[in-house]
Amino acid sequence: MTSYAAYLFDMDGLLLDTERLFMVPFVEMAVREGIQRGEAEAFYLRLIGTSSSVTSERLKVFLPAHLNATEFEQEWRERYEQLLEGGVPLRPHSRDVLSALKRNGARMAVVTSTHGASARKKLQQAELIDFFEVVKAGDEVSANKPDPAPYLEAAAALGVCASECVAFEDSDTGTTAAVRAGCHTFQIPDLRPVGQPFPELEQEIEQDLAKAALKLGVFDTALTS
């Protein structure tokens, strides 16, 4: 296995299959308010990887003027939390990769734009929290992705340099942050606008987390789905 000081993971859309779950109530509510489904879906895709504060600001611009954006967002998040009560779905091979890294003594952290309480709750529900020494959340960093601060600060919390770490991301925003921090970065896209080009960074693009792990020597052979 290729030796790195630590392995840094985004959460939503990378470890957890929650981006789709978050999209469902947003689109339903937007359509209810007279917004076209395609327009709502396209707007949501542009939110992926952004912080809660950025989401709130963009929502104020996107929604019709007669709607209270704060109330809309509150209902949206409440409905999302209700969906999560039915279980937090995982992205393909998340647990396999984390388990293999743990067996090899790897140090791991989560680097997410989600607020800390919500992030830890989801990781706990998904039974992934114990894999990580550090969870660095969006309200716990000096600046949010695409700024490199979340990755720099997560690495520092582990006592290592970001340039000695591997980062795994799904969004362009997160990938930009990881590359700027100096991490060896894998981008594993989840929800993405059709035809949208990937940012021209020094990231490696893989279909799923297991393929990235295979390239790093975490597995000897490819995992089947």
From TrEMBL:
GO molecular function, one term: hydrolase activity
UniProt key word GTP-binding: no
Organism taxonomic ancestry: Bacteria, Pseudomonadati, Pseudomonadota, Alphaproteobacteria, Rhodobacterales
Name by which UniProt lists this protein: Phosphorylated carbohydrates phosphatase
Listed transmembrane segments: none
Keyword annotations from UniProtKB, A to Z: Hydrolase
InterPro entries: HAD-like_sf (IPR036412), HAD-SF_hydro_IA (IPR006439), HAD_2 (IPR041492), HAD_sf (IPR023214), PGP-like_dom2 (IPR023198)
Enzyme class of the recorded protein, top EC level: hydrolase
Keyword Hydrolase recorded: yes
Pfam families, sorted: HAD_2
Enzyme Commission no: 3.1.3.-
NCBIfam families listed in its UniProt record: HAD-SF-IA-v3 (TIGR01509)
